[in-house]
Amino acid sequence: MADFVTGTTRGGKSWTPKFVEHIDQKLCIGCGRCFKVCGRDVLELIGITEDGDIVDAFDDEAEKKVMSVKNAGNCIGCESCGKVCSKSCIAHLPQAA
Ligand code: SF4
Ligand code: SF4
């Protein structure tokens, strides 16, 4: 069985963080709920144009807004973002130790 990076709760119990791995931007509605609960500056709202180009979320050319992973390395694997996502578009995975 693979070993994963683990943490310890305040009470001394071991737990396995599950880090943000992927956001399904086809399902994402850009509501921003995940962004609001993440205190680690991992996520970023981006805009996608009609041609599929990535632009600033508030650019006039943005036809759709979706969430993206900006700083994956900042994630602590708390899974809060996934819990508040009504579209279940955020996938998390433990990290091999
Ligand atoms: S798992 Fe936690 S730290 Fe990682 S992106 Fe989601 S809310 Fe932020
Ligand atoms: S909570 Fe889900 S639907 Fe809303 S922006 Fe985040 S990933 Fe997209």
Automatic annotation (TrEMBL):
Annotated 4Fe-4S ferredoxin-type domain residues: 19-48, 65-95
Tagged with keyword Iron: yes
Entry keyword annotation includes Iron: yes
PANTHER family per record: ADENYLYLSULFATE REDUCTASE, BETA SUBUNIT, FERREDOXIN III
SUPFAM superfamilies found in the cross-reference section: 4Fe-4S ferredoxins
Gene: fdxB
NCBIfam families registered for this protein in UniProt: fdxN_nitrog (TIGR02936)
Pfam family, one: Fer4_16
Protein name (record): Ferredoxin III
PROSITE patterns per record: 4FE4S_FER_1, 4FE4S_FER_2
GO molecular-function terms, A-Z: 4 iron, 4 sulfur cluster binding; metal ion binding
Function description: Ferredoxins are iron-sulfur proteins that transfer electrons in a wide variety of metabolic reactions.
Coiled-coil intervals, chain numbering: none
Organism of provenance: Azospirillum thermophilum
Cofactor(s), names only, from the UniProt record: [4Fe-4S] cluster
Keywords: 4Fe-4S, Electron transport, Iron, Iron-sulfur, Metal-binding, Nitrogen fixation, Repeat, Transport
